[in-house]
Design goal:
Rossmann fold; seven-stranded parallel sheet; 373 residues; six-stranded parallel sheet; 13 strands; 16 helices; globular; alpha/beta
């Protein structure tokens, strides 16, 4: 066994990889010298997130399950290739442990590792486990969850669940707000609405906030906008805001989200599991517009605890720009216009994140033989 190596398997969205990087950083503190290898998908977002990280990366050809029968041949071919790659990876590297990050790219490596007797864990940070994690649960030794309600959704494997929270990147809640605003070219004498379309670029959020631009223009003496558009969306967003009265700073991708959170006074975003955890760690109130196309509506469940505490409100994504603009006028604009309400949400948001999840997962991995000799 290579007792100084751990494989992190998964990807396909930033919501899987960003928490994993936090675990990898914690593992370096808990067990210095341990090597980490990421087995990710071939999506561009995976390469972008991992490009600056100091870890070896193995790209798998596996893709998600197709929506119709026409895609099954290509899916099967890619799955078989990833399965063979995963077997070679586990056999050659002989890792001390494997951490499945969730998503379709976790399955080949987790199955191979479990079959070879390698200690295997899953990160299950969504309130409702995804298909891959539900499928892999019986093969895992432990399942690390963000929400207490997740355990019951694993049925006979519920006893494997440990509720630790969601790993978050270092520095959240620590940056100075003034310095963060200057980093983005924002003004110090305005509050900042942070609009985050997510790692895959939520077009519905970009369009909805653009549709209420005239309303936001009317708040230009008190507010400004920092807009993370997502890949491929920057040009369209900048064109839509070209003649705005309200100050608007847009970027396609933000490598320093800890600064973006520090610059913000209110966030408008999806409620992916990692985003919810990062907002809690940063103490930033939010307007959540959950992704509406999941059959199990997992992002609504992710947001429920924050909404219930008063740290967030929820606006439904109807898939129609006019309807979504109406939802933001009903939910978000009153907060922007009422400083007392914003302050109440800020107080509810403060101190909500525990920040211990990454270290707890890292200590489990180190305990499987990846720790100091």
């Amino acid at each position: 066994m290579t007792d100084r190596l751990v494989i992190f398997a998964g990807g396909g969205t930033g919501g899987h990889l960003v928490p994993a990087l936090a675990v990898a950083e914690a593992l370096a503190r808990v067990a210095p010298g341990v090597r980490v290898v990421f087995a990710c998908s071939d999506r561009d977002i995976d390469r972008r997130i991992l490009s600056a990280a100091p870890y070896a990366v193995v790209v798998q050809p596996v893709r998600p399950l197709p929506r119709g029968p026409r895609g099954w041949w290509a899916f099967g071919r890619r799955w078989l290739a990833s399965w063979r790659l995963a077997r070679r990876l586990v056999g050659d590297l002989r890792p001390a442990a494997v951490l499945g990050l969730g998503g379709f790219a976790a399955a080949p490596v987790v199955r191979s590792a479990a079959g070879a007797g390698v200690p295997t864990a899953l990160m299950s940070i969504d309130a409702v486990p995804g298909l891959a994690n539900r499928h892999l649960a019986r093969r895992a030794d432990v399942i690390f969850a963000q929400f207490a309600s997740t355990a019951e959704r694993y049925g006979r494997n519920a006893s494997k669940v440990r509720v630790v929270g969601c790993p978050v990147r270092t520095g959240l809640g620590e940056a100075d707000a003034g310095e963060a605003r200057r980093h983005f070219g924002l003004r110090d004498d305005r509050r900042t609405l942070l609009v985050v379309a997510g790692s895959l670029g939520a077009a519905n959020i970009n369009r909805a906030v653009g549709a209420i631009r005239s309303d936001l223009d009317g708040l230009s003496d008190a507010w400004q906008v920092l807009h993370v558009t997502g890949p491929g969306k920057l040009d369209a967003v900048q064109e839509a805001w070209r003649d705005a009265s309200i100050a608007h700073v847009a970027t396609e991708f933000c490598e320093h989200m800890e600064l973006a959170y520090a610059a913000g006074d209110l966030a408008l975003c999806r409620s992916g599991a990692a985003t919810v955890a990062e907002l809690a760690a940063a103490g930033l109130p939010a307007v959540f517009m959950p992704y509406p196309y999941h059959r199990d509506q997992q992002q609504r469940h992710n947001a429920a605890e924050r909404v219930g505490s008063g740290a967030a409100v929820m606006a439904s994504d109807a898939g129609d720009p006019a309807a979504n603009a109406a939802a933001l006028r009903e939910t978000m604009l009153p907060i922007l216009r009422q400083p007392a309400r914003l302050e109440a949400m800020r107080r509810a948001a403060a101190g909500a994140g525990s920040g211990r999840a990454a270290e707890e997962i890292a200590r489990w991995l180190a305990g499987q033989g990846a720790g100091p000799p």
